[in-house]
Structure formats: structure tokens, C-alpha cells
Design brief:
The protein is of the alpha+beta class and 116 residues long. It contains four helices and three strands. Strand 2 and strand 3 form a beta hairpin.
């Protein structure tokens, strides 16, 4: 009986040593600025980006022109996600500067100065 307990403990120790690599998703969030014209744009992103390797969740905002992607950093990274957006014709930027000027409320503000 004692041998069996030692064996089970050994198996459990081995299993636990392997577990964190597979089960522990390193969840990260990134906020992309993407030109979202309408619901069809959102649907396009939801249908395509959701199936990218490592993507856990997507939250799109037409009002803010943003797409928040929660992903497993062990399986993908920001440049890879940006390539996926490019593939569907929706370039994703980490800054709002890439958005068309007409849709950026900051551009309309007369007191907005760029500091060098």
C-alpha cells in the first residue's frame, strides 16, 4: 500500500510540474484603434479575429473606434494580432493617430497642439 501512495504522489508531482505551462494562460489585454465604420465592420472583426490563435475575448466600440483584445501571451502577440487585422483590411494601431481625421474628435478641437 505504501508503494502505491508514493507512486500516486510521484505522478501528482509530475503532473503539477507540467500543468502551469499548459493550463496557465498568460492573459494580456491590448487596445487597438481600428476604423469601425458600422456594425458590419464589427461583425467582420468578431468573425475573423476571434478565431486567431490565442484570442480569448474581443470588445469592439464603434463610438471609440477601438477593439480591445484579450489574448494568451503564450500563444500570440501584438504584431501577430495586427497582421490578422491587416489581413481583413482593418489595420489596427496602438495609437488613435492612424484613424481617419474625420472620425477623430481631437482633430476638431481648435486648442489641440502637438508638442515637440
Amino acid at each position: 500500500m505504501k508503494k502505491l501512495i508514493i507512486f500516486i504522489t510521484f505522478i501528482a508531482a509530475c503532473f503539477m510540474a507540467v500543468q502551469p505551462v499548459q493550463a496557465k494562460a498568460k492573459k494580456e489585454k491590448v487596445l487597438f484603434y481600428v476604423y469601425l465604420h458600422c456594425d458590419a465592420c464589427v461583425q467582420k472583426i468578431m468573425k475573423n479575429i476571434a478565431f486567431e490563435k490565442g484570442v480569448k475575448d474581443i470588445v469592439c466600440s464603434i463610438d471609440n473606434q477601438t477593439v480591445e483584445v484579450t489574448y494568451d501571451a503564450n500563444k500570440t502577440d501584438i504584431p501577430t494580432l495586427q497582421k490578422a487585422f491587416d489581413k481583413i483590411g482593418k489595420p489596427a494601431s496602438l495609437t488613435p493617430d492612424a484613424l481617419p481625421a474625420a472620425h477623430s474628435s481631437k482633430e476638431a478641437e481648435p486648442h489641440h497642439h502637438h508638442h515637440r
